[in-house]
């Protein structure tokens, strides 16, 4: 039964990854996600059922649009596979605890949204941070995933940390989107895990940037926006943050 869960969440993730691709494209082109059918981004033709099967279509039609024959970005199947694997991981990690599996799948969906959009367009929208944070607050409060105190301190620290940098640098170091991403991180992780995630993001960012600085290729390194590190650090912390902290405390005591 357990393996059926993992398979179910993989397929569910691939479907939502396909939805995420559409949402990313519609966010970029200013269209509503609720209206109109999917179409080819190159020629604008409405997709037939053959072209609209997540993952399968891309490989079946060898990554081309049936109407204009132009190549479809590899980002489409990539996002579908990634979200599928992340959902399957959540099912594996929680081993039958369906509510927690759904919660983390929900969180991973929006972290992927931020990651892909921030890396591609250097923007973070409220629909990727504020709305999922508000949505997540309800079950978190009812089911007691974090205490009210833990969320409050988590949000104040997460958002406040970036707000402070925003004010000091007058918006040069970070954008307003990072402040709202900090708020989402606070709701997901609570206190004190928010600190662990911020720590991972900075260490990860430094480790990634260092080789580029040594090779004097700063532009390559600065092309990865900070939101990318924050989302990766949040995903790592939500699953393994406590283990890593306990391992560290064991080392120093
Ligand atoms: Zn086309």
TrEMBL record:
> What topology does it adopt in the membrane?
Multi-pass membrane protein
Q: Name one GO biological process term.
A: signal peptide processing
Q: Which family does it belong to?
A: Belongs to the peptidase A24 family.
Q: Where in the cell is it found?
A: Cell membrane
Chief localisation class: membrane
Give start and end of each Prepilin type IV endopeptidase peptidase domain: 106-210
- GO cellular component terms, A-Z: plasma membrane
Q: Where are the transmembrane segments?
A: 6-25, 78-99, 105-121, 151-169, 181-214, 226-249
Per UniProt, residues of the Prepilin peptidase A24 N-terminal domain are: 11-92
Keywords of the record, alphabetical order, are: Cell membrane, Membrane, Transmembrane, Transmembrane helix
Pfam families noted in UniProt? A24_N_bact, Peptidase_A24
Question: What species does this protein belong to?
Answer: Candidatus Magasanikbacteria bacterium CG_4_10_14_0_2_um_filter_41_31
The protein, known as = Prepilin peptidase
PANTHER family per the record?
Answer: PREPILIN LEADER PEPTIDASE_N-METHYLTRANSFERASE-RELATED, TYPE 4 PREPILIN-LIKE PROTEINS LEADER PEPTIDE-PROCESSING ENZYME
Matching entries from InterPro entries are given as: Prepilin_IV_endopep_pep, Prepilin_pept_A24_N, Prepilin_peptidase/N-MTase
MF (Gene Ontology):
aspartic-type endopeptidase activity
């Amino acid at each position: 039964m357990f393996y059926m869960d993992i398979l179910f969440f993989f397929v569910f993730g691939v479907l939502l990854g396909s939805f995420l691709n559409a949402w990313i494209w519609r966010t970029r082109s200013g269209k509503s996600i609720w209206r109109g059918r999917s179409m080819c981004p190159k020629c604008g033709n409405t997709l037939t059922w053959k072209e609209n099967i997540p993952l399968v279509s891309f490989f079946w039609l060898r990554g081309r649009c049936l109407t204009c024959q132009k190549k479809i970005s590899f980002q489409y199947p990539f996002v579908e596979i990634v979200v599928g694997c992340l959902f399957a991981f959540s099912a594996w990690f929680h081993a039958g605890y369906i509510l927690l599996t759904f919660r983390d799948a929900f969180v991973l969906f929006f972290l992927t949204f931020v990651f892909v959009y921030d890396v591609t367009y250097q923007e973070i929208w409220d629909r990727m941070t504020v709305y999922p944070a508000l949505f997540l607050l309800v079950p978190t409060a009812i089911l007691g995933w974090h205490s009210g105190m833990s969320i409050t301190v988590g949000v104040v620290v997460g958002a406040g940390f970036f707000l402070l940098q925003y004010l000091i640098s007058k918006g040069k170091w970070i954008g307003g989107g990072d402040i709202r991403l900090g708020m989402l991180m606070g709701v997901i992780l609570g206190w004190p895990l928010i600190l662990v995630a911020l720590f991972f993001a900075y260490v990860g960012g430094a480790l990634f940037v260092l080789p580029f600085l040594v090779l004097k290729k700063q532009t390559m390194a600065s092309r990865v926006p900070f939101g990318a590190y924050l989302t990766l650090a949040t995903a790592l912390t939500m699953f393994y943050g406590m283990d890593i902290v306990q391992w560290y405390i064991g080392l120093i005591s």
